[in-house]
Each structure stands twice: as C-alpha cells, then as structure tokens.
Design brief:
single chain, alpha/beta, 9-stranded mixed beta sheet, 3-stranded antiparallel beta sheet, 18% strand
Length: 463
C-alpha cells in the first residue's frame, strides 16, 4: 500500500472536540514510547538477521528445529496483533452524531443484513455483527437504530496528486499522475502498517465537524491551512473536479483501506467514469464477492497487497485470512480489471523464499504470467520497529524466484541501490522497454503497447 504524503488532516486536540469525541488516539510519540522496549532489540535483531535466515532455509547443519523456532520467537515483536473485535457501544452520539450528519459525512451503508435491531455487515470477511450503537472492526461503520451507516463519506483526511507508479502500477498509464485520497479506517490490524496514523484511526479522530464547512476546490487548493483541512469535505463531485483541474487521467482510492469506505469510493468512481476518468483501487483485497463484483464495474485498475502466502502469517501479522485475498485476485481477472500485486518482504515473517516460490507458482497457475508482481522493501514502522529493513539481496533473490517460476514482469520497490529494480523488459527479446527511477518514467520505448524490437504485445493498459 502506498504511503500517504501531501495534504493530510492534522490531529484535532481542542478541549471542545475532545468532549465531543472522547477516547481519541494516542499520539505518535505515545505509540513510539509504547514500543520502546521492542525497539531496543533492533540492533541485536539486525545483527542476527542473516544467521536467522540461514537457519530457516534449512542450512543450519546440526542446529535443531526447536532452536530455530526459539529464535523465531525471539525476533518476533513483543506485542501481538489485535483481534477482529467490534467496538461495543462506540457509535458517535449526541452533538458529534448531529454534526457529522450536518456535514453530509454520513450515508446508509451498502451490503448488510438487518437482524431485527442488529446488523450483520457483509462487506468484508470480518462479517461484523453489530448491536445498536456498536462500531465495526473497520472503525467507520456503525449501527444506529437498526440501520448500518458509514461515517466515511466525503471527509477525506489525506489527498495528493501522485505518480501512478507510486501505487505501485507500472503497466497502467505509465508516467501519468493520479489524484489520490483516503479516509481513516481499515479491516486489518497490520503490525507493520506504514500509514497506521490513518488506517488505525476513527473518522472523527481525523476530522473536525465544528465551525464553517469547507469544500475542496481548485480555488481553495491555493489557500489551504491545517485548520481548513481538518474541516474540509471532498465529495465525489469535488474529487472529480480536482482530478480534471490537475490534469490527472485517473483517481486513486488509497493510503488506508478503501474497501471500508466503499460507498464513498463507489459513488466517486461511478461519477469519474461518466467524466471519462479512470479509477484505481489500492487495496489489501479483503472484500466479499458480491461487493467486489459490483465494484469491478466501475474500477479500471487495482494494486492488491498480497501480504504473504501463509494463513498463519496473515492471522499473526495482519489479523486476516489468506483465502479471501486469493479469491479477490481471481475475481478481478474474471471481471477484466487490470491489476498488479505487491508483496512486502518483512524480515522473519514473509522473507521465507520457499513460501515466496509457492506464491509465485500459484500466481502462474491461477492467474497466468502477465500480471506484474512487485516485491517491496520493509522499513521499520508501527509495531515492528524492532526489525531491520529488508536487505536488497533478499529482494533480488525473490525476484529471481519469480522469474524462474515463469512470471514475466517482476519489480523491486522501495530500494535505490538496485539499478534495474523498475525496468520493464520484453518477455520475448529481453530488451529494456520502460526505464524508471523511483516513481518516475525516464524512458518509454513502447509503441502502441508493443515491443518495438520484436513486436510482442506487452500486457497492460497503455493509452
């Protein structure tokens, strides 16, 4: 998932708003203090990293399996992922609820079942069951008097005009910009989340409904203040107008997990389609089949974060399940949506090269060779500050495995020391077709989506 940059709503700390929205998030400083004891192990973890991988790869000679497991536990974080529980009796009430409604930041949700006054949410595989006044695991869906509402509609807390390569998408309109935005919330609790200050917050912890309403517009863009961003609305028509003004051919729903602000994303994507704009979904792929097939009718491209190829790791690292993500990829292919896959290689979690080989083989067998795969470097963040960054050598090994399995387009992300990390090669003649530096296309040799040297068609959306 790409990292949020650019304009972001600031934390609202005034006493009046604290009274309206008690239980606000811990500050970043507090979170870091909470993880200080684990961070103190970082040097030891980094120094032992290569020995640890040596053991895991079965090259440990007489070392016992029990010792290997003991080392694994030593370098795991000292905190565990939260369970997939709902927030009991935590829906906004009184003045806060009324203010949210006045702003237009509330809509009835889609994809749920009414069970008397109770609610069964059918949007993602968490399938939250909510009694009246409960809040869903994603933090932005609430049961008010037997109706499921989303609190995440038009109240973007972060937005920017990004290179499409940042999503990352390398085979979808390369070299263009995409207007990108997010609302807080997520259905996962990833220990390594790089955007946790958005994803692990409630909408009312990132927006302030008090005072005069502010709508984002090209005119307002030139005079935005932090206070204005806190109160700002970005409704679907505003997002489309901003993309048109900025000359971006697409809109990206990104930074947090857009699935949990489904209604806002769907309505914006539908309007963008009518205006001739493309829609990009940057996601963990944790969604049920019915809403996914509905969404596939209005999106053009996706980057799906396939976090590992292990059910146990999904449960421990992300509080999720693997199978729904694999199903998401297969459905996107069935529905004709262009997608690319990102795999973040996290030391001691997802750097198992045999697991990476199984993942690549599954992609080849179930999806085919032409869907791009991005191996991305982990950097210490959130609750995994005790781990070192992924060595570039591990990412290079992973890329080689993917190529050996038969995948045609494999990239390395979040690194600077690998010269060919972002080069698109022709699978036929192996000539360089697109050369990138970071998020920027330096040279593009494609001619009408084909290799100019051998004439082979290159998979992607190029025009």
């Amino acid at each position: 998932m790409d990292q949020a940059q650019g304009f972001r709503s600031q934390e609202v700390t005034g006493p009046a708003f604290r009274a309206m929205a008690p239980g606000r998030k811990l500050s970043r400083r507090r979170w870091l203090a909470y993880g200080a004891c684990a961070a103190g192990c970082a040097a030891a973890a980094g120094g032992a990293y290569y020995g640890w991988r040596w053991l895991r790869r079965g090259e440990g000679g007489s070392w016992s399996e029990s010792l290997t497991k003991a080392l694994a536990q030593t370098f795991k974080p000292l905190v565990s992922a939260d369970s997939a529980d709902v927030f009991k009796a935590d829906a906004p009430k009184g003045e806060l609820w009324e203010a949210w409604q006045r702003r237009g930041w509330v809509r009835e949700a889609r994809h749920y079942l009414k069970l008397g006054q109770n609610i069964h949410c059918k949007l993602c595989p968490n399938e939250c069951r909510l009694a009246p006044e409960d809040r869903g695991h994603c933090r932005n869906r609430v049961n008010k008097e037997g109706v499921l509402y989303t609190l995440a509609y038009g109240n973007a807390c972060s937005f920017n005009n990004d290179p499409v390569e940042k999503k990352p998408l390398y085979h979808f309109l390369p070299g263009t910009k995409t207007f990108s935005f997010a609302i807080s919330g997520c259905g996962f609790r990833c220990l390594n989340c790089q955007n946790w200050d958005i994803s692990q917050r409630k909408p009312e912890e990132s927006k302030d409904p008090r005072g005069e309403s502010v709508r984002l517009s090209p005119e307002m863009l030139r005079k935005l203040t932090a206070e204005a961003i806190d109160r700002l609305s970005l409704f679907p028509e505003d997002a489309v107008a901003m993309a048109e003004y900025l000359g971006s051919p697409s809109i990206s729903y990104t930074y947090s997990e857009p699935t949990v602000w489904y209604e806002y994303m769907y309505d914006t994507a539908q309007l963008a389609r009518q205006k001739g704009l493309k829609n990009i979904w940057v996601t963990c792929g944790y969604i049920q089949e019915k809403p996914l097939r509905e969404l596939a009718q209005v999106i053009d491209a996706a980057n799906v974060d396939l976090k590992s190829f292990s059910q146990e790791i999904y449960r421990t690292l992300n509080t999720g399940k693997l199978e729904p993500v694999l199903r998401c990829l297969k459905i996107l292919k069935q529905e004709g949506v262009w997608f690319e896959v990102t795999n973040l290689v996290v030391p001691t979690y997802t750097d198992d090269l045999q697991m990476i080989r199984r993942m690549c083989q599954w992609m080849l067998d179930e999806l085919g060779p032409d869907w791009p795969l991005h191996f991305s470097r982990f950097r210490p963040a959130h609750k995994l500050t005790n781990l070192p960054p992924t060595p570039a050598s591990v990412l290079i090994e992973a890329r080689q495995i993917a190529r050996e399995c038969g995948l045609h387009y494999v990239y390395i992300g979040n690194v600077h020391e690998v010269d060919d990390a972002g080069i698109t090669y022709c699978p036929g003649c192996r000539r360089e077709l697109i050369y990138r530096e970071g998020f920027f296309v330096i040279r593009n040799e494609l001619k009408e989506g084909k290799c100019p040297f051998c004439g082979r068609k290159i998979a992607g959306v190029w025009a």
